[in-house]
Amino acid sequence: MGWLRRLFSRERLEADLDKELRFHFENQVADKVRSGLPESEARRLTQIEFGGIEQIKEDCRERRGTMWLESLLQDLRFALRMFAKSPGFSAIAILTMALGIGATTAIFSLLDATLLHPLPYPHPEELVRIEDDLPGAGATDAGISIPEWKDLRRSGIFQYVVLQIIGSANLTGVSQPSRMQYEGVSPAYFAMLGVKPELGHTFDPQDQTAGFTLDVVISDGLWKRAFGSDPHIVGRSLRGDNDLYRVIGVMPPGFRDPGRTVGERNTEQWAALGFSDDPAQAPNRSLRLPLETVGRLKPGLTVAAAQSQLDALTASLRKQFPDDYPADSKWTVRLVPLEENVVGNVRQSLILLLGAVALVLLIGCVNVANLLLARASARSREMAVRQALGAARKRLVRQLLTESLLLSLLGGVAGLVILFCMKGFLLRLIPESLPRLNDLSINWTVMLFALAASIAAGVIFGLAPARQAGRLNLASTLRVEGRGSKGSTEQTRTRRVLVVTEFALSLVLMVAAGLLLRSFWDLYQAPLGFNPQHVMSVQLWLPSPNDPKTDIYGTAAQEAVFARELLRRSRLLPGVQEAALGSEPSIPLHHDGNRSALIVEGRQTQSKQPPLVERSEVTPEYFHLLKIPVLRGRLFNDGDDENAPLVAVINQAMAETYWRGENPLGKRLRLGRGRLGVGLPPSKTWITIVGVIADARTESLANASVPQLYLSLYQETPKELAVFLRGDLNASAIPEEVRAIVQSVNPELPVYGAQTLDDAVSASLEQRRFSMDIVAAFAITALLLAALGIYGVISYLVSERTRDIGIRLALGAQREKIMAMVLRQGLGLAMAGAALGLVGSVVVSHLMAGLLYGVMPIDPLTFVGVTLVLTGVALVACYIPARRAMHIDPMIALRYE
Amino acid sequence: MKNTDDRFDLPQGTLDLLIMRVVALGPIHGYAIAQRIQQISRDALQVQQGSLYPALHRLEYKKLLNSRWKPSETGREAKFYELTSRGRTHLKVETENWTRLTDVVSLILKGTLEGI
């Protein structure tokens, strides 16, 4: 406490010190006078004996032990005075830092919510996704069988192993029927994730019910949306697909399922499933179900250790059940840290963004360093005088660093303020598909990051001027009488190096942006293979009650009646020229695919595990509506109904994959049942291929050749349907019009997810566009900053050489030559920067190869183009000072001295 | 300029010891301390202000000295230093150490080197 008190009584201490020394001084003078010297002489001698009185005071202050704090306050006060003295400079520096730190912090908060804290559950490192592979059959993540699940639970490796299946159901009994995303989960689901409900309770993890229970837990979102935040919700019931369920708990607001897809993460209702009885089939070891398996490892067990125990277990099971695990299928079980699983595919993009923004911050720092250097040269006399008066160099360096740190901290605070103000706007820019389970927030970690970034930035840009001040040559600086602005050659060199760095960094960023732009463009321009223009899709959902006998759409015939009626009414809607129906997976670029096991007739299946193929059900009009041409055979027709033999249409890619060099027409196959018929064996009846269509990018924009198989909707009973409409449509009226016609057939059916296919196409480019937009914005900022930097340095060089140029002009130098000389200097800097930057770009572009589509990491067009743009900008930036140099009036320039 | 002495280089810490010894005689201000040291050492030691005051302030900071403002012999206010109880023990210990050290050093320096 002592030093704190002393700090506050600083003024008194100072006065005392002065008084004490003065007393000593006066006594000494008095002594000398007594010994016979005249007073003036006595004073003079005492003065000499005393030496620098300020120096003594400084030493005394230092002994007091509060020096560091005092000088810090002093420095801060001084810094603030300096800022106030040159508000323009301060504003530019603070704003540059604010933008740099604000942007870096924004990206970091994104990283914080996704990569750093991907799983908002306790002990996230124990959570793993469990995937079964059959490398022999070329299948990864092939699904799990119920006996295997039981083996895993008994293995002693896991605390919990939970199965999940996602679906959606019609929520009725509330004001407007709607669709809700639900998950059937093992009862231990919530216990495994370790999250407590906000209201009520969750499932008993020990529950051994073999089939389903009618208890459900709902999300905070559903509670607010459908139940108006009813505090007495627990015990109330809701209808899902006409079945009555009882709500037993509500999860807290931030809770999300750790799923891989947006759909899974947006789950609104959880029901407990035993997976061993109705609606699932009796357990069968070789029957793999398309379920998600998630486990929590025993505490203290690493993933690697668990994996090796698991390998031993699978090896012994393979021996024990040779029939179920044929040697050639090579069944293995793989543990993937859940964290990895959730964020894996965006890690690269996010790191790229952070790298890009860090580069921008760095360029900002370089710019501010440049500004500070320019100012330092103006202040070099001040520094020299202070040193001559006895200020320690260390002290001056510290003061300059304090100034820089204060600048960057102010910038950081301003950046955070900007971030807070723009939070809402920025959040809207983030694609929904970005895997994150956390809400983005500016939390302590993010604040700490901003602080660290500010300090780092302050040190980086403060270092150059501080170093310069530290090695000031007193004699020469003071000798250059008054004309303070003459910088040392070393200073000029530092500034040149800074500008070269700036150019190099900007070039790297611009190459990255250019490559992303090219990838995006290629993808955007890739022929789709279908025509999304003037097409809308609207989704609806037929209920699928737990008791099949109450399902009014249970057979193909029943559903076909509904489908035909719906189509008939759809065609009557205003503007509609064509209408078609399909199952949900038939919606182009809809990301929840539907894969079925494929068994080809006469093909010796090497193992019991058949390959999987994307399948969807459509009405005959579908292909024409999307303008997908038929290559061989025929498309569906109205006669392909429940009474006719089953038929299929495949795409070219599927024909290539399974019947390369053969005619696929007339070939027969069987399919595993859809994902809702959990545990059903493949259908008994053979399906005949009747047509081959051209490949279209309906599955993925990046991949045109995904094998796909279409069935006739009138022969199947898909529950998730989509109405496709082509024509001169009013996109805002269509959802209501379709809702009206659907509900005029059955008022219980929800209608949702209306979209134009053009929107669907751009939505699937969303994530790429997001990173491209941001990197491009950063690149442009970097370019501007670099231009400012080179402008500053060249202007400075010109003003420094005004006299020199004046003399040359007076001696008859041509003005054009002067201009060329200045431009050459600028160009030299830009070229050096570009050369360095190109080297950096080669490294960076290879690191980001995974994010590119259709362009090589070393794309000559991008590299050359970017270099040209950069050089051009540098020339423009140098042109202004060069013109000034050209128009220097020798008379004025020379009189200046 | 600082810490130089015309006749001696005082070993580190010695000045503190001298100051405390002088202060031990009774409350005394800085100027008088310098005078007294000079007198006692018969002008062999001349303490510079540049060393004296930082040392005084350091000793005060370490709570070995206390200070009080009161009128001096000339009537002007001066800062008088006195030993704290801690300073007193410190002085005692340090004086003993010093005596022991100088005894040992002089013993060795005056010795005949035969023992080596």
Domains counted in the coordinates of chain A: how many? 4
The helix content of chain B, as a percent range, equals 40-55%
Distinct helical segment count of chain B: 4
Number of self-contained structural domains of chain B:
1
CATH topology annotation of chain B: Arc Repressor Mutant, subunit A
Q: Give the overall shape of chain B, derived from the CA principal axes.
A: globular
Main β-sheet description of chain A: 6 strands, mixed, barrel
Class inferred from helices and paired strands of chain B: alpha+beta
Share of residues in strands of chain A: 15-25%
Largest sheet of chain B: 3 strands, antiparallel
Helix content of chain A: 40-55%
Shape of chain A: elongated
**Rg calc of chain A:** 37 Å
Structural class of chain A: alpha+beta
Q: How many β strands of chain B by DSSP? A: 3
Low-confidence spans of chain A = 481-485, 674-680
| Spatial strand arrangement across the major sheet of chain B | 1-3-2
Helix-strand topology string of chain B? HEHHEEH
Describe the protein in words.
The complex is a heterodimer of chains A (897) and B (116). In chain A, a hairpin with a 2-residue loop joins strand 6 (237-240) and strand 7. Chain A is built from 28 helices and 21 strands. In chain A, the strands form three sheets. In chain A, strands 2-3-8-5-7-6 form a six-stranded mixed barrel. A six-stranded mixed barrel of chain A has the order 13-14-19-16-18-17. By secondary structure, chain A is of the alpha+beta class. By secondary structure, chain B is α+β, with helices and mostly antiparallel strands. Chain B has a single domain (14-110), classed as Orthogonal Bundle (Arc Repressor Mutant, subunit A), CATH 1.10.10. In chain B, strands 1-3-2 form a three-stranded antiparallel β-sheet. Chain B is globular. The chains are: A alpha+beta (897), B alpha+beta (116). The interface between A and B is medium-sized, with 22 and 22 residues.
